[in-house]
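User: hey, got a sec? need NADH:ubiquinone reductase (non-electrogenic) folded
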Amino acid sequence: MSERRTKVLIIGGGFGGLFCARRLGRADVDVTLLDRAAGHLFQPLLYQCATGTLSIGHISRSLREELSRHPNVRTLLGEAVGHDADAHTVTVMRPDETTFVLDYDVLVLAAGMQQSYFGKEHFAEWAPGMKTLDDALCIRQRLFTAFEIAETLPPGPERDGWLTFAVAGGGPTGVEIAGQIREVATRTLANEFHSIDPEDARVLLFDGGDRVLKSFAPGLTEKATRTLESLGVELRMGVHVTDVGRDGVTVTPKSGGPAEQYGTRTVLWTAGVEAVPFARHVAQTLDAETDRAGRISVAPDLSVPGHPQVFVIGDLVGGDFPGVAENAMQGGLHVASCIRRDLDGKPRRNYRYRDLGSAAYISRGNALLQVGPIRLSGRIGWLGWGFIHIAFLTGVRNRISTVMTWMAAIGRGDRYHRAFMLGDRGVPEQPYTWSKDDQP
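Assistant: Yep! Here you go:
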């Protein structure tokens, strides 16, 4: 090994990037963790922030603060936009759209996935996804504004459109947000309006499959279906959302038949994911194989074939690995171990994912938990979800006070974080914003 310390560049501060950086803390390497938000987000609870149960501070933490105990790890704010495989450099764009270059000896790609609209990107204008803090705050604004606008309208189709909420995608995120919207309507806002009855709000859940939560055991999905229907969520299975506009959505049955239109002013999109543009760019520069969603094929040690100095972890890994937090965390720890073994002159070990189960929150007192042969639902599943899903998966420091704060907020059922802003038309555009043309 050269006397010069190895430079490790990690792209992305999610579960994989954070756990890799932590494990490399105080190792004989210089680590740079680059993230476009300079913060770690506990993404599995975004829907709780979007519906007012948790605040931004409950589900996010500054990466600089989180890694301050590790003197060999530095965090930088920026968006990776270019990669030179031969020079081992990454071009980074600052929020003011100027750029700088970082060099590396080892590159760890942990940039994650983004919402996919399956080639119909214009849907995004009317149907926000659920991937970032901005998404959560946007959904919170749309959700509570819809009730406020409905309060000012007379009975009729226009009011009905504001009181109808459509969710595309029947996976965990779709199920969780649909259940939460019905809870907002039936509990949180029940006695706060005069002209409307929030309980009249319709929540439509569209999915192309024959059941929700297809990754769970059939018995659990049946219980989830009954719980959702008891909450008042209307399930429309076996359909694809084929158009989204200002006034509603159009769905088409997979089996054929005429399209159906639903009037709604609030559409939320959780139907699919795809690799972020930089990940696709890196795959091209490395001539790596990818699947349709842009996930990158990797060697058994999570490196890119032919490029042992480049690793891929988390949702971006191709193959049969699930896109869940546990896979990202385990991948981050594994890659850190590989780097340490390289320093010690030891052979790398192959990555082996350990399935620690799946969980989905439906409503207060109702959740699903699947861990190996264990199947829990209802209130027992909800308690299991709380102690495992939060306490174990959290990417911030596992402090009892943090977990108890989250559990108290969720357990009470109150929503003290419902504030939203519509913006000020008189304020000029802010100078430090990400460009819409930041793709490589």
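Quick note: The longest strand covers residues 29-35. Let me know if you need anything else on NADH:ubiquinone reductase (non-electrogenic).
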